[in-house]
Amino acid sequence: MSVILELTDVSKAYDQFKVVDGFNFKVNQGELRCLLGPNGAGKTTTIDLITGRQKATSGKIMFDGREITGLREDKIARRGVGRKFQVPAVFKELTVRNNLRVAFSNNTDPFANMIRFSRKEGRERLRQVVELAGLQDRLDVLGGNLSHGETQWLEIGMVLTQNPKLLLMDEPTAGMTEQETQKTSEIFNRLKGEHTLIVVEHDMAFVREIADVITLMHLGKTLAEGPMEIVENDPKVKEVYLGSEGITSAA
Amino acid sequence: MQRANLYHDKRAQWAAYVVFFAALAAIPLMMDDPFTMNQYARYGVFGILALSVSLLWGYGGILSLGQGIAFGMAAYGMGATMQMQYQDPVSDPMPSFMLTNELESLPVVWEPFWHAHYGILLAIGVPVLFFIIFGILMFQARLAGAFVAIMTLAMLGAWYSMAYDMQPYTAGFNGISPPNAFVAFGVEVDPYSNLIYWTSLGVLCFLTLSIKALLQTKFGTVIQAIRDDPERARFLGYNVAYYQTVLFALAGLIAAFAGVVWVMISQYVSPTELDIFFSISIVIWAAVGGRMSLFGAIFGAMFIKASESYMGDEFQATWFVILGVVFIVVVRFLPKGIAGLFEIAIGFIPYRVKGSSRSGVDTSSAGD
After folding, report:
1. Which residues of A fall within a CB distance of 8 Å from B216?
2. Structure confidence by residue, pLDDT tens digits, B73-84
3. Which one of A25, A116, B160, B326 is at 20 to 30 Å from B153 when CA atoms are compared?
4. What is the pTM of this model?
5. Has domain A3-249 been given CATH number 3.40.50.300?
6. ipTM, 2 decimals?
């Protein structure tokens, strides 16, 4: 399997405090990786560094054979990195349909898009994504009028429409009901293999459901990495999560 | 949020535009009053300005208080063009205000205005170029909201002072008043005629329909997406600053057209075109009419200016108090302006959405 994303000695510091501290991280093509860790471990910052929202203080980020360290967000996105935010972000005043049309961003030049009538575009992809996200009946609803779960799915759908090589999902099940979480894990299991995913998540039941390999971060570094059973029983991990019951109770 | 109704039907919207402009175009056929035509032509210009604010603010989420910059620059360009149409290269090569300001020869910047086509090209091209540069400066730095409003307002103030102070070139406070009407292709565009009214309305109609069509393209959807959440758009691969700059320049282009037509109507240009209160008024017209609707904004401009000329005389300075109160009420209770009221009212007309998968109904671009 080929490596699609590689972080080498990546650090991010605010003044003296290192949020991400010499972090090394490798993800293979088609893998679904879960990024875990207590609050303040540097998970979201790592996602920010990969997608260009924040610039690394030092280190190197390679994606798909090319360096992306310090590139602007939209350039990284065009290289094939999609991102779902922690607080779901959709276009509130646009319909679900138009949200997905905007996400179909094969051509992002403003002048090219002035002569492009978006309705004919990407119809097939739209159909697939809408079916996957289960939004068939909600196409003409404004993004701002969706329920919380639907908003999460819409954003996942938007990132899929973008068709990135790598998908970064920051807490995709936050605030979802049990049923909604169940549906989301089904979506993710269908995506595995075809797409490469990195999922930041707190919900251990969900992680168990979807993850192949887990990377556990602590204080900006890798604490443990491997399949769930191994990480779970690692004594270092138990210590971080206040000893007693291990990560299972931390959610 | 209300359900889709006739207001959101694309075909009904286009039909409304056709009826609206056809009705306006027919006005001169019903009355023969050159003075009124001049006045109505001015309303057309106010409509064009409101159109530019609706596009930029309503659809793009960028509140510019400096649309007067493009309007004023274009007005000076047009003023210079018309002035030089009057001057004679041999016997009378310099406008009289330059002589009284003791200039010895025509300034180089005035030379291109000997040719009307270059003059108009500059009158429109220079403001657009300025808006591109100004836009790049602001949007690359990711300025938004109140910061853009303050920057544009300050820039407008700077241009006002410049027009005021550079007396030998701009005639300062007195302004430039070309003695003759503009002549295009041998036809004199008399500011007191049906022709001037149709010119103004024609430009308004052309620009409105062009922008309406532009909003149907993917570009139109993307600028609205950027308005809602620039960060999200950026992570989908869109260069937000690029889009905002293009949109800003486009709004500048529209305001520049307004400036050119304005001087054809008024035969006069002075720093008042760059007045801060005037530029803020444009925003008020658009807000009252409904900035989320091109139609609403244009109507707002015409409605307020017409009320002002018919009632302003009676109320004098109180008029501005009334306008201020109306503005506050609209912002607080009617975020979509008069167009929003219209949207609700029209909902009482029975309307059936055709097959939801591919209907022409699209609430996102309500009333555009």
Report:
1. 117
2. 999 999 999 999
3. B326
4. 0.91
5. yes
6. 0.90
